[in-house]
Amino acid sequence: MPFSRPYKFNRTIKMTLATTQISIKKWHQMLETNDMSILNDLLADEVVFRSPVAYKPYEGKQVVFFILTNVIQVFQDFTYHREFFTEDGENVVLEFSANVSGKSLKGIDMIRFNDRGQIIDFEVMIRPMSGLAALAEQMGQRIAQYQAT
């Protein structure tokens, strides 16, 4: 059947996009309800977090869980404004704004999902520098305490 492969490919794309959309709904639910147990289910064991201030990525579910649950506490007036899904459903970009220590910032979360709807790559970009510096100071203290244990 000459059309079986494209049909199968399109079906896979739709299934991946649907799975990712469900995961993003869970992500928003987690933030709205402050239920961090949802995050545990959303993170793949092999997840990688790429910080806007650290050169080396953080690898593994435990450290990424720590970072994300702490940054949520550091951000004040955190709001998502827009979201973009890639056609294949594997990647989502979420645009946000927040305040940290009286400094306003804007940023994006670039999130990649596996076919089970789990986060496998999470990269953050933030501007302006003053907001990023305030975030780096707050998170640096928390990460130093985490690494000391």
Automatic annotation (TrEMBL):
Boundaries of every SnoaL-like domain copy: 25-120
InterPro entries given in the database record: NTF2-like_dom_sf, SnoaL-like
Pfam family, one: SnoaL_2
Protein name from the UniProt record: SnoaL-like domain-containing protein
SUPFAM superfamilies in the record: NTF2-like
